[in-house]
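User: What would this chain look like folded?
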Amino acid sequence: MDSDPALAAAPKPDAAPDPQQAPEPAAPKPAAEPGAQKPKSDAPKPQQTPEPAAQKPAAEPGAQKPKSDAPKPQQTPEPAAPKPVPAPGSGSGAVGPAPAAPEPAASTPVPTPGAPEPDPIAAKPVPAPGVTGPFMDPHPPSRRPGRPAALLAGLLLVVPALVTACRLLDTDGITPVPQLLSFLPWLTVPAGLGLLLAAVARRRGLALTAVVVLATTAWSSLPYTTWTTIGHGLPVARVRVLAANVEFGQATDALIATIRRERPALVYVSECDRACGRALTTAFTAELPHYASVEADGSAGSVLLSAHPLRDWRMIPATMGMPGATAEIAGRSVRVQLAHPMPPLPGQVDVWKRELGRIEDFAALRTGPTLIAGDFNASQDHAAFRAILKEGRLRDAAWAVRRSRAATWPVEGPVPPYVQIDHVLVSDEFSVDDVRFLDLDGTDHRAVLADLDLRGDR
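Assistant: Here's the prediction, encoded as structure tokens.
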């Protein structure tokens, strides 16, 4: 085998021990290539003490490091600390490729020969998104636990809080408050859900607010009345009153059948067009011969039928007909009035308030027994309706028998009835025996049937 010219030019020491022969702890010696010869020496090898793993073995005195153009092979680093790689030929006669170096640790990158020096600032590790340091908030505001539940709870509490506030302030406000007031008892559901979500989100302030809103909404849903006086004096006559909205006359036939079955003495019919009025007055010429009406088409027509004589006909000005008169019942003059103001539709809230205000003015002028019935398009949760009760010293017959939350509208459609807007209002000369709510085919309202006793002065 031919010798390497670099090795042939290097002087061969006679007595210098080979420093590569000194044992090192935990550092494997590179394997010699087959066929490579080690220089022989007759001098005895001195005993060497193992050095710590982190120190480089010292070279023997007198040993010369020949220059070589061969690339420097890398030496396998020790587990505890990497060991510097000696130049090839320094005290060793081994010829061949150096053992492959293991992959460098992640914390100590090994530069690639010929590559530019890395920038220490650019090489600084950047924390990955979402990784927090020791001084960062473990729960940033955008990712705080329970935040979605808290937001949903706040949204659920907005409407109950707004509607309840208007109820406590005794105002109907503007759209959409009058419409939402019809749902007041049902607003306890979103208020309760808001309280539950606030508790799940562990927000004490929000939970306290939800408790207040829920309690106020439930309290506002209690039956309302301005007085609790029961009719005084002895009963002088039994009066059965029926109030029905026949929806453009579509439920006329059903109403005729109901009148024949229940035999009321006073019948208040709303949305009774011309055909409806003729049918009713013709069908009950014997039972209900007296009537006051507003003859009109569609929802503007109304009729008031009576088994008792009527006089002093009057009509409250309104978009839809509201006839009235004075009935003679058992020798007493009773003012009877049909109520049918405009509904509180968006854009018509002012008209609705104005027409309810006219009914309020009528009630305030009463001087004797009074009966006001019909489709008020308002519930006890509307301030304009409560004002009628307050000024006229009237009460709702349904409240007297603890049925003031019995819904009368809407009967038709996918939504079940949720509000009572059909009422029979009585003065303190009447006592209420019973109130029933009847279904009529062809209309979206339930009829109200009230049994009353008219009482004397003593």
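Residues 147-168 form the longest helix (22 residues). If you want, I can go into more detail on any region.
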